[in-house]
Every structure is written in C-alpha cells, then in structure tokens.
C-alpha cells in the first residue's frame, strides 16, 4: 500500500474540534480549519467560503443546503468511507482502520487511523496532543514527548515498543474513534464537499475533492489540495463557471496525479488510475452503485 502523507505543511488541529465537535454554530469554521485558513485570493484559486464575510457565508450555506445532498447523503458517505479505506488500508471495512497502525518504510514513521495520521508529518502529533490534553488518562498520553521528538522524521525513538499497542487500545474507546471522525469530517470532508458543490460538481467530484484533500492536505502549496485545484482551474472551467464537469474533473485528476508522481511515497496512483478515473470515464458522476474498482492490484466491489 502507498503511504499517505497528509500535510505538506503543519496544520494545527483544534482540541475543541477533536474532542467537543467544535462547539457553537457548525456554519462558522474554527479559526484553524481549512476553510478558514486557506487564502481566498485568486492566486491560489479562491475558495469562496474562505473569502466570504459572515453574511456571505450565510448565503453560501443556504445555497449549499438547497443543493442535492450528494456525498453527504448517508448511503453515499458510506461509499466514500469504503473507497477511502481501500486506498488507506486495502480494505472495505473502514471501521477497522481506527486501530490500524503501521510503518511502511517510506520515512514518515507510523501511519495510523482512518485518515492516516503520520508520526513524521505533524498531524499525528497535533491530534494526540489535543486528545490527551482533554483525556489525560489515555494510553497515548505517555508518548506525547516522544511524538514531539520524532515529528518530521521517520524515527520510532521513544515510541517502540509500546506505542502501537497504545494506539490499538485507544481505538477500542468510542471517544477516541469519535475524535478521529471529527478530524475527518471537519478538516477534510465538509470543506471538500462544500467547495465541490460550489464548483457545481456532483457526487463523484465531491469524492475526488475529499480524497485529494485527505491525501495531500488542505494547503495552498502546489502539491497540496488548493494548489491542485489551482492547476486544474488553469486548464478547465468548473461547472459553476460554465465548464463541462467531465473535462474539469479530468483536468483535476491530471493535476492530482502529477503531484502524486512527484512524491517518492505516492508512485502507485491506483486511487486515480483504476478508481476515480474509471468512475469518471464510465460516466458515473453520481457515484451510483454497483461499483467495481481496483486498488493496488486488488479488486473491490460495492453492490449497493
């Protein structure tokens, strides 16, 4: 399996999002959420939600709410979790991924959880720090100092031999699983689906945005999500701009694939070549089952 590196640059994860679901009105993103943090200037291909003031955001929320549910519909969301799990862990059983932890030898340390937190790419550190601050009795709490020391490296120093067992033990706790869910939803899924809808994209396009945001991180560098979107916008118009959905998504996948090929740990581009591109070329913009795809040479199916 290809290792997932989530962040091109460190992105803080708010403890309130991880543990308490953010609190307050969900329409107002936390100050360090991707939607709030990403620049809105045209040089990166603006996220209209990031650029908006409070009243404009209210109007955008109403606009999105009036659209078909798309990937946010429970059945389609379940498909999204399954397809993502095949790329993260070569399994359809996405719930098994809460406890997943492994080192694939690509220099980013341990990868763990449903979105592939990495001990060497800062996101695991910020997640564990936030969680253990509110849950000091967590089995992971003793490993926070070691995670700080290995951050940015592939080292296991101070983590072995007990860290993997501590992660798996933590994953038996529904509170810990819910914290992983909130990171996935608030940091990746919700901003990706919202932006895809504002770009006029259907369910498949929403998944393509979500997957790219998970894989490359919601940053504005050329090799992060908003950089990929900027490259796609230079080649094709979004549906909201009057463009053809298939043409735009093809351009987006081209840009996403180029970024993957540029990274030493992402040379297997199955998630694009034999999954997302196949759905696109089949004309399945609604991501309607039955679905069949290949990931890393293995065939997966979702009947309904």
Written description of the protein model:
β1 and β2 form a beta hairpin. α9 crosses α10. The protein starts with 14 loop residues before the first helix and ends with a strand. The protein is globular. The relative contact order is 0.15. 48% of the residues lie in helices and 5% in strands. The chain has 304 residues and is mostly helical. Strands 1-2-3 form a three-stranded antiparallel sheet. It has a two-stranded antiparallel ribbon with strand order 4-5. It contains 13 helices and five strands.
Topology:
Elements (H helix, E strand, L loop, with lengths): L14 H6 L13 H4 L10 H4 L2 H12 L8 H16 L11 E2 L8 E2 L4 E2 L4 H12 L9 H7 L12 H8 L3 H25 L4 H14 L8 H9 L11 H18 L7 H12 L9 E5 L2 E5 L2
Antiparallel strand pairs: 1-2, 2-3, 4-5
Helix pairs in contact: 9-10, 11-12, 12-13
Multimerization state = single chain
Q: Assign the structural class, choosing from mainly alpha, mainly beta, alpha/beta, alpha+beta, or little secondary structure.
A: mainly alpha
Label the overall shape.
globular
N-end to C-end Cα span: 26 Å
Mean pLDDT across every amino acid position: 87
Radius of gyration: 18 Å
Strand order of the largest sheet: 1-2-3
DSSP strand tally: 5
Instruction: Report the biggest beta sheet as strand number plus sense, adding barrel if it closes.
Output: 3 strands, antiparallel
* Low-pLDDT runs: 1-39
Strand content: 5-15%
**Amount of helix:** 40-55%
SSE string: HHHHHEEEHHHHHHHHEE
Q: Count the DSSP helices.
A: 13
